[in-house]
Design goal:
With about 230 residues, this protein is mainly β. About 5% of the residues lie in helices and about 40% in strands. It has one helix at about 15-25; strands at about 5, 5-10, 35-40, 45, 50-60, 65-70, 75-80, 85-90, 105-110, 120-125, 135-145, 150-155, 165-175, 185, 185-190, 195, 200, 205-215. The chain binds 2-acetamido-2-deoxy-beta-D-glucopyranose (2 copies). One 2-acetamido-2-deoxy-beta-D-glucopyranose (NAG) binds near residues 154, 167, 168 and 210. Keywords: Disulfide bond, Signal.
């Protein structure tokens, strides 16, 4: 980046630029400053998986002083190339750094848990003379998938026209709660046939969700003698 007494160079107009600089009597000072281009933080991750967080910056001639990672306001990783041991780790619940896969560009977190969710921020600082610092942040939500496929309860093996179908679909232990839907013969069930239940929280924070289905069987529900629910 080039700065001229607070004016930035108008692109493609070098003549005006030079004229201005002469008129204003400013000498051109080349300020090279590090630039944080982007960070890469997965928006969603599943519990038990490792996560790589990337901090992409250009030094632009600056010398790197440090790269620091925060979750919320808490620092958990600092890379200082000038130190004999460049990596410093600070304990944080749900954040376990794998130092063998971390450096000045990336931080790898060991298998994440529900506690790992939060806003992650990378801050890059240049050494003298600029001491320029930039930072960027992004949210990561860690989700816990249901233990197994949803189960259907309350169904009978056979229904006749005029029978009432009343069944439940239950998805055990996930976070956030699973969102469920019923299909009758592969068609999404009408809202008035659904019975909503509030998700139930387990002691460990996982939620069990349930959706009921209630309707009276009509001739239109039978496709070549079959009624399929899922
Ligand atoms: C469905 O679940 C609700 C809530 O647990 C329960 O009250 C109801 O009896 C269940 N119905 C069937 C058909 O299993
Ligand atoms: C269940 O957990 C969710 C997510 O943490 C929370 O929003 C909700 O209020 C809890 N519900 C109960 C009944 O504790």
């Amino acid at each position: 980046m080039r700065l001229l007494c607070g004016l930035s160079s108008p692109e493609g107009r070098p003549l005006v630029f030079v004229l201005l600089s002469a008129l204003l009597g400013c000498s051109e000072v080349g300020v090279e400053a590090l630039k944080l281009v982007s960070i890469s933080v997965p928006a969603h991750q599943v519990t038990g998986k490792a996560v790589e967080l990337d901090c992409n910056y250009n030094l632009e001639g600056d010398t790197l002083y440090s790269v620091t990672w925060y979750r919320g306001r808490d620092e958990f990783y600092r890379y200082t190339p000038g130190d004999r041991n460049p990596i410093d780790i600070f304990e944080l619940p749900g954040v376990a750094v794998d130092t063998s896969l971390s450096d000045q560009r990336k931080v790898t977190l060991r298998p994440v848990s529900l506690l790992s969710s939060g806003k992650y921020r990378c801050e890059v600082s240049a050494d003298a003379p600029s001491f320029h610092t930039e930072s960027r942040s992004a949210e990561m939500l860690v989700v816990d998938l249901p233990d197994r496929v949803p189960t259907i309860t309350g169904g009978r093996p056979k229904y006749r026209v005029g029978d009432e179908v009343h069944v439940n679909c239950t998805s055990l232990r996930s976070r956030p709660a699973a969102s469920l839907m019923w299909y009758i013969n592969n068609k999404q069930a009408a809202t008035e046939n659904l019975v909503e239940y509030t998700p139930v929280n387990d002691s460990d924070g996982l939620e069990t969700s349930r959706l009921g289905l209630r309707f009276v069987v009509g001739p239109r529900h039978f496709h070549s003698g079959e009624l399929r629910l899922k």
